[in-house]
Design a protein that fits this description.
Layout (H helix, E strand, L loop, with lengths): L2 E2 L11 E2 L7 H9 L7 E2 L1 H17 L1 E2 L9 H7 L7 E7 L3 H10 L1 H7 L6 E9 L2 E9 L3 E9 L2 E8 L4 E8 L2 E3 L3 E3 L4 E7 L7 E7 L4 E7 L1 H6 L8
Parallel strand pairs: 3-6
Antiparallel strand pairs: 1-4, 2-6, 5-7, 6-7, 8-9, 9-13, 10-11, 10-14, 12-13, 14-15
């Protein structure tokens, strides 16, 4: 449901990012730590997407999880080169971050999103026009670190580090074809795959086989788009 809000005082005519506010990562992690949950790492792509969407919401003068073109949080994340398979989003408005965080804690739905046990990373953004401020926080589950794709010697080279200890071997579905890794180091989690250039626009699903014989998908992407969708090639 969309919520509309009115400006009390407009000091500036253009929406600008709020850069002086404290980082939301620490207070949100404090809420999780109080419940014995894992501390979330910051993510550059999530923060960029959240910041851009905060500015859009400010321009539209609404609070909504649906973007101007009908896109949702996962769509916005994909447009910036995000590859994780699940995204959570919370939105709020208030005079400062403390007010917004208190409101989130009093809302079962928002609090539930903050303390979801599976999350591993978060990113946030905010924008203001005068004293009016909108805050957007995105959460995701990342099982692969430093995922990147490069063009080398006539192929796409995909590489990264698998995090889960249960991972027995990385797997890559290239369209309907299953590719085996070119390199796999179980001790460090490092892997690499060679992908034919003609498969650059095929849908790829990266994952791993676990010790209990299950296949778990960690990331989805198109290699060609991943090269051009976001300038930061290494996902932190």
């Amino acid at each position: 449901m969309m919520k509309r809000y009115s400006f009390i005082l407009v000091l500036l005519s253009a929406a600008i990012p709020l850069v002086s506010e404290p980082d939301l990562t620490e207070p949100l992690n404090n809420i999780r730590a109080q419940r014995g949950l894992v501390i979330l790492k910051g993510d550059k792509v999530l923060s960029l997407v959240a910041s851009e969407y905060a500015r859009e919401l400010l321009e539209r003068k609404i609070l909504s999880h649906q973007g101007r073109g009908g896109e949702r949080a996962l769509d916005r994340y994909r447009n910036y080169g995000g590859t994780s398979v699940i995204i959570g989003e919370i939105i709020g408005s208030g005079v400062d971050s403390n007010v917004v965080i208190r409101a989130w804690q009093q809302s079962p739905a928002h609090l539930g999103a903050i303390i979801k046990a599976d999350w591993t990373h978060l990113g946030w953004g905010t924008a203001r026009d005068g004293i009016n401020r909108i805050w957007v926080v995105l959460f995701t589950v990342k099982r692969v670190e430093k995922l990147k794709v490069e063009k080398k010697n006539g192929v796409f080279m995909l590489s990264g580090f698998l995090i889960p200890e249960e991972a027995e071997q990385p797997l890559l579905f290239s369209g309907i074809n299953l590719l085996s890794p070119s390199k796999w180091e179980p001790e460090t989690g490092y892997f690499s795959f060679s992908i034919p250039l003609q498969s650059g626009m095929d849908y790829h699903r990266l994952g791993y086989s676990s010790m209990d014989s299950q296949i778990r998908i960690t990331d989805v992407f198109y290699p060609e788009r991943l090269l051009t969708s976001f300038p930061e090639r290494e996902r932190q």
